[in-house]
Amino acid sequence: MTKGKKSGDAPKKAPGAPVGAGAEMRQGAGGETHQVAGGDVVTLTTAQGAPVADDQNTLRYGARGPALLEDFHFREKIFHFDHERIPERVVHARGYGAHGYFELTDSLADVTRADIFQRVGERTPAFVRFSTVAGSKGSFDLARDVRGFAVKLYTKEGNWDLVGNNIPVFFIQDAIKFPDMVHAVKPAPDREFPQAQSAHDNFWDFISLTPESLHMIMWVMSDRAIPRSFRFMEGFGVHTFRFLDADGHSTFVKFHWKPKKRLQSVVWNEAVKINGADPDFHRRDLWDAITSGDFPEWELGVQLFDQAFADTFTFDVLDPTKLIPEEELPVRIVGRLVLDRVVDNFFAETEQVAFCTQNVPPGIDFSNDPLLQGRNFSYLDTQLKRLGSPNFTHIPINAPKCPMAHFQQDGHMAMRNPIGRANYEPNSWGAAGGPREDPVRGFRSFAAEETGPKTRLRPESFADHYSQARQFLISQTPIEQKHIGDAITFELSKVERPDIRARLVSHLRHIDEHLAATVANGLGLPLPEPAKAARPTITGLPPSEALSIVKNGPDSFAGRKFGILLTDGADAALFDALVAAADKEKAVHEIVAPKIGGVTLSDGRAVAAQQKIDGGPSVLFDAVAVIASPEGAALLAGDAAAKDFVTDAFAHCKFIGYAEEAIALFDKAGLTADLDEACIVLETESDVQDFVQACRALRFWDREAKVDLDAKA
Ligand code: HDE
């Protein structure tokens, strides 16, 4: 599939764009419609509707005189502009959203009365917002960070917000520590840097004093924290929730989103470079996939269990720093989530969407997870601050799509106002008296019986901090384990205080001695004594295949991107064969060329480029090919960006296809002697097919040992 459009091509005309001939109705993000007369442009008006004659000049006394206060058009315009910003989210500020639907594929009527899980085949509208946590709204996409995976499902019995992450556990066990944890990771308050990074003293100081975070740290230091695309990452509800059936019987549940195109991440050196080359890498990727019709898709899976399982499980199911391995409790796939529509307006939808963990429909309920309980307080509070009014549910993106009827009224920006006399209940106005409660359909909480003293106490059952961290590590392939060691070493190398570095390594000794030694060695640090552990590590937990990205990679290159570096005179047949093979694989490609105008192939055909070589480094692609004429290769060999293109692709263990003529570039880049079996010469159509097939492995990890000093240590 050729990438037909450059990003930025919305499927329909953007609001405010010049209007050509023909009548059309345009709908504003707020739902209002603007009539566009046939052949005419719409008249500019003030917000009060007064037509505007001149939008270029303020009202003045004489052309060079002072401005006049009575210029209401100018005042209104500037006033509105001055108030365009709302507070960014205190965490998860940088995010990107899209619309879609959830479709039930397996009924859960046996365990929950939740309406969304009753009828197989039924679709429920959805809005999803992905995000990073630490960076501000304008930060870059490929920070090493947890990704938010927040799903709003507009069910027939109210909105259900499953506000999850791409990592199934969390840093802390009690919500009261959240402000400290977030303060520690965000830029230091005196200097306001570093931005969108965890590689600094404050973060590691907090972490090394908070051993419960170590399991999450293993995930955050793994390649899970630098995903290739939102489309290729998992999502998790993290906490244990409850399903309730019509009789109020409870089943515990953990939620999983599994990407149809399987898992993929980038490598750290690549992430750093992507952030420079395209800070919008993830949002652009999502936009491009949806607008080209390659709709991202996830399966919804549930792990269901009862109290008896909870009582025998090695860890406390209320502890959000623990997961339940899929091998121990299988994930039952019950539906699919498809994102098929980009937003019309980023602010109206993605910025104003207000997720609240406490938004659950009848049939879904909370557990006592202390983090979840704290979140249930926090999100409503946060939305009032961000959106400025308790009427944020009136904003179209937040409004339920099912009927609503209640007696809430007034407040800032009230858009839905009660009609009639009765605004209280009970009342005796009969049918005109408004809505009544429904003891059968209405939401009911699980009738849990709670006992115990009023106290501030962390349960003993939460005290094991290292066993699952170790289980995560040993579940990884060797290359993934190496990346974890590299990441911790890198992060701690940015920590200025040696005692903080040592304190962190003292915890690693409880997770894995080899990891601790590798990190200590990488830092040039004597191995510290092990930290004091609340509980000894259980070393016998079996590896879980589900925790590795590499073991859960795709078996095709579909949805991935080739970068094809072309020059004038490049072999046309080879190029055609490569494009055909990429299309067949359902992969996309972009042409990179010395000039954005493109190249003239060996058969005289002109091919446009999507990237000029300086703006299209190989980090933007999953695999690259170089098809050059001898003259073109000589030209590229003298260009630093072209040399980086191949050396980076090589260093990042990518598959590289090349026409024999391009070898001059590899020579000059100093790669020729190192070319390995993942560097594939393209001469015939069958070479091209072999190359595309080889690319399905995504990376040739064996190479990393050759190009990384740490691997040789
Ligand atoms: Fe959040 N979190 N969080 N969080 N969270 C917010 O709500 C909070 C936690 C998550 O795309 C805030 O609207 C507390 C875990 C996502 O709009 C705020 C605690 C998980 C998003 C808030 C947590 C998340 C948020 C900030 C500890 C994964 C972005 C802006 C108890 C399961 C949603 C906002 C979006 C956003 C509070 C921990 C996921 C401040 C107090 C655990 C995906 O209310």
Tell me briefly what this model is.
InterPro entries: Catalase, Catalase_AS, Catalase_clade2, Catalase_clade2_helical, Catalase_core, Catalase_haem_BS, Catalase_immune_responsive, Catalase_large_C. With 713 residues, the chain is an alpha+beta fold.
Strand-helix topology:
Blueprint: E1 24-27, E2 33-36, H1 72-82, E3 95-104, E4 123-132, E5 147-155, E6 158-165, H2 178-185, H3 201-208, H4 214-220, E7 235-236, E8 241-244, E9 250-259, H5 268-277, H6 281-291, E10 297-305, H7 307-312, E11 332-341, H8 346-351, E12 364-366, H9 370-387, H10 467-474, H11 478-493, H12 498-511, H13 513-523, E13 561-566, H14 572-584, E14 588-593, E15 599-600, E16 606-607, E17 611-612, E18 623-627, H15 630-637, H16 640-651, E19 656-658, H17 663-668, E20 679-681, H18 685-695, H19 704-707, H20 709-712
Parallel strand pairs: 13-14, 13-18, 14-17, 18-19, 19-20
Antiparallel strand pairs: 1-2, 3-4, 3-11, 4-5, 5-6, 7-9, 8-9, 8-12, 9-10, 10-11, 15-16
The structure holds CIS-heme D hydroxychlorin gamma-spirolactone 17R, 18S.
Task: Give a description of the structure.
- This protein has helices spanning 72-82, 178-185, 201-208, 214-220, 268-277, 281-291, 307-312, 346-351, 370-387, 467-474, 478-493, 498-511, 513-523, 572-584, 630-637, 640-651, 663-668, 685-695, 704-707, 709-712, and strands at residues 24-27, 33-36, 95-104, 123-132, 147-155, 158-165, 235-236, 241-244, 250-259, 297-305, 332-341, 364-366, 561-566, 588-593, 599-600, 606-607, 611-612, 623-627, 656-658, 679-681.
- It has 713 residues and is of the alpha+beta class.
- Bound molecules: CIS-heme D hydroxychlorin gamma-spirolactone 17R, 18S (HDE).
- CIS-heme D hydroxychlorin gamma-spirolactone 17R, 18S is lined by residues 89-92, 95, 129, 131, 148, 150, 163-165, 170, 175, 178, 238, 353, 355, 371, 374-375, 378-379, 382.
